[in-house]
# Entry
Amino acid sequence: MDCTIICKSIHKGNTRKVAEEVGDVLNCQAVDPEELSPEDLSSKDLIGVASGVYGGNVHKSILELLERTSFSGKPCFLVTTSGFPSVFFNDYEKKIRAELSKNGLEVFDSFTCRGHDEYGPLKYIGGMYKTRPNKKDLKKARQFAEKVEDRFRSI
Ligand SMILES: Cc1cc2nc3c(=O)[nH]c(=O)nc-3n(C[C@H](O)[C@H](O)[C@H](O)COP(=O)(O)O)c2cc1C
# Structure
């Protein structure tokens, strides 16, 4: 299985920690979008998108890269870390899935967990979820990757 995880983690490195666990199980790298070309992605069987949630979306550099690609139904999984769960914040996961689908990616599974968040005024109180992602989150991320592998093989 040839897979790449497009990973953007600008705030605390939270998403990178999670994406690297997933990549370790799937035997693939978590790579910044700036280091990838559309050609690098088109040869892959499976694409992972891993990002912190910024203003209710994945990082714009991921979307910019995907806009230059021409996938049609490429299997994809999504990994996010955020300060708030999607249900409390505009259902951002639904929006992100729609963005990825617009770019020809078929998201068949997703993983999310909280990440240390010191964005904006939160920094004055030391932020939220200081110790996340924690060991338990990373273990769950590995279990998610095992599930992705099984599901991908049955597609
Ligand atoms: C510029 C910015 C915007 C953010 N916007 C959101 C948001 O819309 N919803 C949310 O739940 N968390 C938001 N957060 C918190 C991050 O999603 C959270 O800290 C995440 O774990 C950061 O991942 P990273 O360390 O991989 O960048 C935001 C953080 C930053 C820095």
Summary: The chain has one domain: 3-147. The radius of gyration is 15 Å. The first helix runs from residue 14 to 26. Strands lie at 3-8, 30-31, 46-52, 74-82, 105-114.
